[in-house]
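Trying the structure run again after the queue cleared.
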Amino acid sequence: MPDPKPLAGYTSYKGLPQLAGLCSVEDAAKPGLSVEECVRRLKRFHYAFRRLHHLLTARITAEPVYELKTAFAHHAHLCAEHATALRTRIGEMREPPLGLEDVPHPALEAFFDEILCASTTEELLFAVYAEALESLEWSIVFYARDTNPLTDAPSRRVLGFARTEVLEMTDWGEKALACLLAPTREHEFVEWKMMLRGLLAAAGGLDGTAESPPVATGGLTPPVPRRYSQQPYQYDPVPKRDERFTDPWNQGVNAEAFLYDDAKPARAKALMMLYKRLREIDVPEMMASIITQTPGKPWGYYRDMSRQLWDEARHAMMGEVGFVALGVDWTQARVTFNWSYRLNTECSPMERHGVLYFIEQGLMPRTGKRYEFEVARASGLPLMATLQDFDWADEVLHSQIGRQWYVPEFGSLRESLEYGDKAWTAVLSNWATVKEQGLTDHANWWPTIYSQACAAEGVAPDPEVLAFATTYEGTRADLQRVAGE
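Done. Tokens:
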């Protein structure tokens, strides 16, 4: 029986946009992909976002460049969000059991394993942004072209948003590579690029629509040799910092002692709060270790923890922006990594999470984030009020994330807090130890920062504020202020 002919000259009422603006009737009259084929491709996209989330998170701690740490935190969060949206959409498409943890193809697994194990930052950037994300973007374009725009409108909506942020990520990656990779070095990546593309070809492309060699039991046929991932990836828990972070063991200034001193003026306290925000770069370094070294959790755990990790990276950038806005060179402060280093190397992932939650709970009373916000408003600096307003909101969310994913591991809230307190006490301070080892002299950097801010404002420094030189060496009660107790 021949196919029916479409009704000639069909129009909507008074020429209104057809089909709720999704497409024309003519476009919707084309069959498009089956549900089975849509699900198969969507699972590939989900796998790509999930692997990108994992590998970007895993590389945060050992990446020394601050701008790359924060970008990896942001992009890992975006990938987690899009993986979550795809999980929801696939679950709507007549697909139980979902099989969302399955590997779509061994060559695709090897492709992402190689990226995870890339030996240099430049290789990692090239593989993530010029190969993986670009391939994902094109696969999304092909999907939107091939599927029926009416019947599969929910998938097109999910992928339309995903494509927007994939393009933003690839644009960032292109700019980052232009800064870090001179054109004269592009030849160094030819072999790396060909190997990655060979793995994608063996997988039938990222979306699996291209012809690929048959898969043999236990491997690939024909074999595509691995370069860096012949051995499983080993996470590096030791935080790295670039050359701007001089004296990273320094604990020469107790920011909390200054902030909670009623005699100190609010404007100077605001400056110290900017240091506290910038110092939060150590939280992504530590949280990346929790996420990477805690397998087997429900996907919601990784999605929520990645949101918190991204927020903490954003807080560090808020401190950066605040310093720049006040005419202060933030590199003159000594932004320590002592906290993330000790937690990552001396504590289990659960103990680290316990410390994180213990500190978060200490920030909830009036002496915590509300106090910081009130100080920011009292400083007379509108930007400070904005920064602390959103910092406070984020920390309330983080406390809720802890209640959902950390507290249920214990018999009660009290037990969960006691566990975190015990772990926190064990790593609270090694002020004397790092000095004895010659790692730092705990230099007092505060006068330099405060003087710069006063000079930019055109005012004379307050002698009493300028003379602040309290260190972390002291009593337990003084040190506990770090936890907001």
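Residues 11 and 18 are 8 Å apart (CA to CA). Worth checking whether this holds up in the mutant runs.
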